[in-house]
Design a protein that fits this description.
The protein is an alpha/beta fold. The protein has one domain. Helices cover 27% and strands 11% of the residues. It contains seven helices and eight strands. The strands form three sheets. A three-stranded mixed β-sheet has the order 3-5-6. Strands 4-7-8 form a three-stranded parallel β-sheet, covered by helices on one side. Helix 3 runs parallel beside helix 4. The relative contact order is 0.14. Bound molecules: 2-acetamido-2-deoxy-beta-D-glucopyranose (2 copies). One 2-acetamido-2-deoxy-beta-D-glucopyranose binds next to helix 4 and helix 5. It holds the Pfam family PC-Esterase. One of its GO terms (cellular component) is Golgi apparatus. Belongs to the PC-esterase family. TBL subfamily.
Length: 246
Amino acid sequence: MLEINNIVYRCCVLLFCHLQEYNATVEFLWAPLLVESNSDDPVNHRLSERIIRPDSVLKHSSQWEHADILIFNSYLWWRQGPVKLLWSSEENGNCEELDGLGAMELAMGAWADWVASKVIPQKKRVFFVTTSPTHFWSQEWEPGSEGNCYNQMRPITLEGYWGSGSDLPTMRMVDKVLSGLGSKVSVINITQLSEYRKDGHPSIYRKFWETLSPQQLANPASYSDCIHWCLPGVPDVWNELIFHFL
Ligand SMILES: *[C@@H]1O[C@H](CO)[C@@H](O)[C@H](O)[C@H]1NC(C)=O
Ligand SMILES: *[C@@H]1O[C@H](CO)[C@@H](O)[C@H](O)[C@H]1NC(C)=O
């Protein structure tokens, strides 16, 4: 479902919150690769080697299938090199390996099969949120510069700007999988609108998991978070889009 973003940090560190006035519960489930994987622990998932069960969405779907509205995304965790595959028919053998895109396509396929077979549109709404862009290389919007999102205070104004963090082959694959699901899924396409927002990341203004070294502290750009987003901020716009669809 949602990759880490600030909605989660703020509202749902407890992994859910109940909104009494609306008799509604908002839950967050950490399942970065959609299918079962060795990255499923919300805290300990920074592993050098990723292993997925490409045909097993079941472990997670049992935790989300009760919801009336489901909002999924998956992207960044696939962008870190090859992924090992452990099919459910094999217990230990995991020698097969695929690049992130190929592995994501398998996982999206398993997820799409779940949606196709289990979702009754009158009873459940399913959304898929597209790639959330990163802003690590200022040379992409300002040729010749050497920074990242640190100290960026204005959006990019170049119409149609597209950074290298938003992988087009991945987008095309996601397009294809989602269009195969027809009206069972609504696409929340946040990528282009968020691409402009190099100013929207927390950069150094967040709590980091690891202790920062004096060298890092002396060079703020070196530890800037150019992945997640500040709140209030860009994710509020994503929420407006979802609200519009409901
Ligand atoms: C709140 O929602 C639950 C689950 O849908 C339902 O069983 C319960 O009756 C609702 N409570 C009120 C006060 O509407
Ligand atoms: C989202 O929008 C981008 C252009 O802004 C487009 O290239 C992409 O295909 C769209 N993705 C989906 C899943 O609709």
